[in-house]
Amino acid sequence: MDTSNWVLQFLGRLHPLLVHFPIGLLVVALLLEILTIGGKRKGLREGVNWMIYIGTGFAVFSALFGWFLKTQEAYTGDLVDNHQYIGIATAVLAIVTAIILKNSLKKTIVNLKAYRFMLFATVVLLTIAGHLGANLTHGEDYLTSVFPGSKEGYSNKESGALLSELKGADSLSELQKDKLNLEVRGLFAHKCYQCHSENKQKGELVLETKRGVFKGGKSGLAVVPGKPEESEIYKRIILPANDKKVMPTKGKLLTTDEIALVKLWIKEGAHWSDKAVKVFPEAALALVKPELPKVEDITHPIDKLIAIYFDKNNLDWQEVINDRAFIRRAYMDAVGLLPEPSVVKNFINDNNPNKREALVDDLLYDNQNYTQHWLSFWNDLLRNDYYSVGGKKQITHWLYNSLMKNKSYDQIVTELVNPVRGSEGFIKGVKWRGVVNASQRTEMQAAQNIGQSLMGVNVKCASCHNSFISNLTLDQAYGFATIFSDSILELNRCDKPIGKMAKPNFLYPELGSVEGETVKDRLLKLSEVMVQRDNGRLYRTIANRFWDRLMGRGIVEPLDEMDNAPWNALVLDWLSADFIDSGSNLKHLIKSIMTSKVYQLPMVNYKKEEDLKAKYVFKGPVTRRLSAEQFSDAVSQIIAPLYPQVAFNPNGDDIKAIRIWHLEEELGRVVLPEPGKRYFRKSFNVSKETIKKGEVLISVDNSFVLYLNGKKILQNKNWKVVDKIDVTRYLKSGKNTIAIIGENNGAIANPAGILFALKLNYENGKSILLKSDKSWVSSRDLPEGDWVAVAYDDSSWKKVRNYSTGNFKNWGQLLDFTFKPHNEKFARASLVKQHPFMKALGRPSREIVTTSREDQATLLQALELTNGEFFNSILEEGAQSWLIKYGEDSSAIVDDLYEQALNRQPSNEEKTMMLNVLGKNPKQEQLQDVFWAVLMSPEFQFIN
How much is the pLDDT for 151? Predict the structure, then answer.
């Protein structure tokens, strides 16, 4: 090598040192520049200027020395190229920034806006260049490898075991050659890809593909079949650690067994298997129902398997929880509600030895409460919420009916994958505005959602590049996404087209072909391929999710990484196979878990996080906090309804009434109504046939007075309440008139609206529905004369405005706004659109699939529960109603509160303390404090 090359190589190796200067100087300069905005801290100006100039100089030298490093050290590949281009762009932008800054400071009136914008853009590019550089230096999974969901799938113990097996053979069979090759390729993946992959081709050597391995690199042939001593890769891996040519140059060197495996592979002809290399552990697809062990005095299948597990781990069975604790746990898990005190008492006094199983049956038979509780689980899992965005439709109606009818899981999956009317929103993803990453196109979203929610596999990583956390490849991800596409998809690696077209394929092709001429054909085949017993992964995934839901921790963790080892494979396989045998009956799966002795064990509180993760040993159900919906519903049961309206009303009549109000405008624009009274009329005709019944539904935000044919019928100041009144005796044949005084409260403009419906049923069976719509008329000012009379002339009044749409849509559906009979006392939280209170308690936004929620309390939750205006208003409303009901009987208040909230009587100490707070003449504030103390207690907050 001549002197010039030696110098350039030396300068190139200074690149990793130099890059830290522009990173530090320019980033700190941006932070200090932000502090000077608005003319503040003028003393920082000169220092910031010098940091920009010096940082720019280092950016230029870093880019130049980086070019030396690439050319002299033979680095190639997309990752290297991208890092180089962005590094050069950063240097150019830094120069432009410095020039703009210098010119700006020369002017009489200094304007730094353009300079600040360029500085921000420079730091953004610098960050991207730094990230790519770190990927080159440490590997593309350097950051993600420490995440809880990541796993090290390669172990040199496997190399040693395989070496022992093969050394004893006189000659290797085809199967043994395959195993040897796959093991060597796995070794390459973990030890060599960091420098020799498609993305980073150091020395022009690629060990990721067959072509790259046998082509070799700049130093010659990496592998010469049958001749290890002539193979460059073998010569490099046997060099001493201090030799500059040793491989790998980064990370741990190969062990003796690993070197021997590589040598044996080359010596045996360097056979290349057609099978995909399995770098990470992968769970078997096949599902076989395990034989149950014979265990004395234990009848439940799950308990038999757990008994063996306990024996192996030297654990003893604990006594099951008492009846009071069991009924509370069962109610919260099956239907998400607290049991009524009378129900608890009857259950405790019941002498039936099978009463717990009977209770579970009764709860699961309560289709409505079961559905409204489990709806939250499925909404999270299927990323379904009560809104449509970017073309994505909600599937609420289909999902609700599926749960009410207890459709088999096979049918649910089939209808999700091959949509029927109402379920198509699941695979039709969000069409994001503007230019989006290739991995976020709608077809890829469908593949990602199905993979994660139904199959427990992460497709997101593989939709950008070969996965760092599983064996999924970019080819597989695009093949899966192509099933949902009208056209063949071109593969994009890290959002860059690579000129290869995808072929429709399921993630697990051994289950069957999904090829078809149209999307419809492919979806049908996909649904058939997925729903079969051979696809054990589908059933293990849902069984694991239900176990986690009811027991607090999955058999496999994380829930979306089903290739991870279960803490007990026999329990998971038996539960999954039994679920299939039941016809994939979801209620059967729940019952199987809830009727086991294991489910009835005391809750276990693992003190250390690691005891729940890597070092987990099952001892019983894990302590669980109430979900946002469970807590909301419990408060609604005991104190006062939290949510007056729902986003989805399963009992609704489909009345389609709209919220109307007097049209309010400013400068030609519709605005929110000002506070005050407005006047409304609607005339209609009644035929001469005999009226069987005339019934009115009305709710006005904020208050109203209702007249019918000149007579005052009703008034109310609570918009959350739907008044339902029989008006048959006020109606007459011919012209009738409804008149309403509506009042909007408040100090400033705010939403207001009338929601009204009148249903006329005639004796002859005919029915007429009159509702609030844009045919009504209104007046801002109090009209002269008898304006509520039928004969009043309202021809000069204005048409009302629909305040239920667009920017004025502020209401959901009121649960009681229906003519149908129903017995719900409050709106279940699962039917309510996202609310700030539930969001604070952990309900997700559902823009992505959510398979588990954070169980730890957060600062936001603490603030909302201690000082939140919304929660305090509910406690205030509840205190008012309780005082009306109980008067000054403090003792009865305390007793009933404990019975309803904790399903037990208070202890003497608790009652004395609460009575001291309430006093003999309880006031609203004191009762709110008592409510709060009970609701914040761990006994209420956790499922015990």
Answer: 46
